[in-house]
Design goal:
51% of the residues lie in helices and 13% in strands. By secondary structure, it is of the alpha+beta class. It has 3 domains: 119 residues, no CATH class; 112 residues, no CATH class; 61 residues, Arc Repressor Mutant, subunit A (Orthogonal Bundle).
Length: 352
């Protein structure tokens, strides 16, 4: 089920009234605004939240806004069976819209259960207390004090004009999601994470040109995004480049870098922009694959843990995992896992 859009009002910001201080702030006066009026198709706070997220993402892709904060305000209308419509003005976040609607449903039900009536009014949402407060009563359109201007007439877009506009629009997040799933065989959860940020989705596509798209998608949507969020950065404001991810995946696939150490590498690259080989050498992250080197480490671990060796010989498979963990600790995660397990089994078999 979709949400219909009835009208789009092209306006200018007249300023802002600070309710708590009783002051008027004219710093935003004259800034262009577009008010989108939707049909009454939204049936729950959850649906309102999802609709707003999709709308903001589409506006972000169009370059109309950059992020949610300060760019969008919502006037929310809500009514329940047995009551009149209530308008909640200037809610400035998706979370605020959801919380305001949840509160109003509870409040209006409580009023009706006590035998009261819901009268048409405008309310303010207090972000601090997460409740709505009465602002003013409204009975008819005249109460809004709209002043008709004969020089401002409705603007209609012809089908031809609409087609022309559609032809020059950038790819929408919904179309990009469908394409990513079909073109790169990525799972829906990974794709949702990628397209949630226009820059991240473009970054991923650059990575996918020079590396396995499945691996590139996984690293960009999970570890990279987590590291960026931790540092309050985006791919456009950090030092990381698509080549960093492609090189890192290449080293992992060649068995020269462990997944564990790759996660640390990403955290450093985001801050420094250093080349992957440079960081690997600096942190001694190159994976140990030499059999001679690994055998020496295995022999040391087995000497230091004779009970685990005896337990394995007695049929306790968990002892193998214990010894492997000791090797991992001894090498700081640089031992090649598959080669280490094979050599460990061989050594234990020879000891039997």
């Amino acid at each position: 089920m979709g949400v219909g859009i009835w009208e789009i009002h092209i306006e200018e910001d007249p300023g802002r009234y600070e309710l708590r201080e009783g002051k008027v702030d004219l710093n935003r006066c004259g800034i262009p605004l577009a008010e989108i009026v939707t049909a009454p198709d939204i049936k729950s706070p959850e649906y309102a939240r999802e609709f707003l997220r999709d709308l903001l993402l589409s506006l972000d892709y169009l370059g109309v806004i950059r992020g949610e904060s300060g760019s969008v305000r919502a006037d929310v209308n809500i009514s329940i069976m047995g009551g009149n419509r209530i308008e909640i003005k200037n809610v400035n976040s998706v979370k605020g819209v959801y919380k305001a609607l949840k509160y109003e449903i509870v409040r209006q039900k409580a009023v009706l259960q006590r035998g009261g009536t819901i009268t048409m009014e405008t309310r303010h949402f207090d972000e601090g207390s997460m409740i709505t407060k009465a602002m003013r009563k409204k009975e008819t359109l005249a109460d809004y004090r709209y002043i008709p201007d004969p020089d401002l007439v409705p603007f209609y877009v012809s089908p031809e004009g609409l087609s022309r506009i559609e032809s020059i629009l950038p790819e929408s997040p919904h179309n990009k999601k469908k394409r990513f799933i079909e073109e790169y065989s990525l799972g829906e959860e990974i794709v949702d994470a990628l397209i949630s940020d226009l820059y991240l989705s473009d970054f991923f596509e650059e990575c996918a040109k020079d590396s396995n798209p499945l691996e590139a998608g996984k690293w960009c949507a999970t570890e990279l995004k987590r590291r960026l969020n931790e540092k309050n950065l985006s791919v456009s404001t950090s030092m990381i480049t698509p080549k960093h991810i492609s090189d890192m995946i290449d080293f992992i696939e060649k068995g020269e870098l462990s997944v564990k150490n790759a996660k640390w590498i990403i955290g450093d690259v985001v801050d420094t922009g250093e080349e992957i080989p440079t960081l690997m050498s600096k942190k001694n992250f190159y994976q140990i694959r030499s059999e001679d080197t690994l055998i020496k480490i295995l022999e040391k671990v087995m000497r230091e843990n004779p009970k685990a060796v005896l337990d394995y010989k007695s049929g306790n498979q968990n002892a193998l995992h214990f010894l492997f963990g000791k090797v991992v600790n001894e090498t700081e995660g640089r031992a090649d896992p598959s080669k280490t397990i094979k050599l460990l089994k061989d050594k234990l078999y020879m000891e039997a």
